[in-house]
């Protein structure tokens, strides 16, 4: 999977199965952490990921399903825990500090 330059990231999608609880909290947390970076953070069902997503963040248990609906060219970032996961921290740091997301 190829990465994407952080400057090209305009939309991050948090993809989940049920659409409630922890993934909604993760989306809210990312919105706050990335405020002022010009990035839209949205929440979506894993099988209905928007076509304009640049980065898709989903629980590792849903990654195979998410790959099927992740737009071509978008980066998929699986994580293990909803709050404090190193993969999510790496994403935030790459965007804030410049660099490549995913890959």
UniProtKB/TrEMBL annotation:
Keywords from the UniProt entry: Phosphoprotein, Phosphotransferase system, Sugar transport, Transferase, Transport
GO CC annotations on file: plasma membrane
A GO molecular function held by the record: protein-phosphocysteine-sugar phosphotransferase activity
Domain PTS EIIB type-2, residue spans: 10-100
Pfam families in the record: PTS_IIB
Matches recorded under InterPro entries: PTS_EIIB-like_sf, PTS_EIIB_2, PTS_EIIB_2/3, Sugar_PTS
Role, per record: The phosphoenolpyruvate-dependent sugar phosphotransferase system (sugar PTS), a major carbohydrate active transport system, catalyzes the phosphorylation of incoming sugar substrates concomitantly with their translocation across the cell membrane. The enzyme II CmtAB PTS system is involved in D-mannitol transport.
Protein name from the UniProt record: PTS lactose transporter subunit IIB
Organism from which the protein derives: Herbidospora solisilvae
Lineage of the organism: Bacteria, Bacillati, Actinomycetota, Actinomycetes, Streptosporangiales
């Amino acid at each position: 999977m190829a990465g994407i330059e952080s400057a090209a990231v305009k939309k991050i999608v948090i993809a989940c199965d049920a659409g409630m609880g922890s993934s909604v909290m993760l989306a809210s947390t990312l919105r706050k952490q990335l405020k002022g970076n010009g990035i839209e953070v949205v929440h979506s069902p894993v099988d209905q990921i928007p076509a304009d997503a640049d980065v898709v963040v989903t629980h590792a248990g849903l990654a195979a399903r998410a790959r099927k609906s992740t737009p071509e060219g978008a980066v998929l970032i699986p994580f293990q825990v909803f709050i404090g996961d190193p993969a999510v921290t790496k994403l935030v740091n790459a965007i804030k500090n410049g660099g490549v997301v995913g890959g």
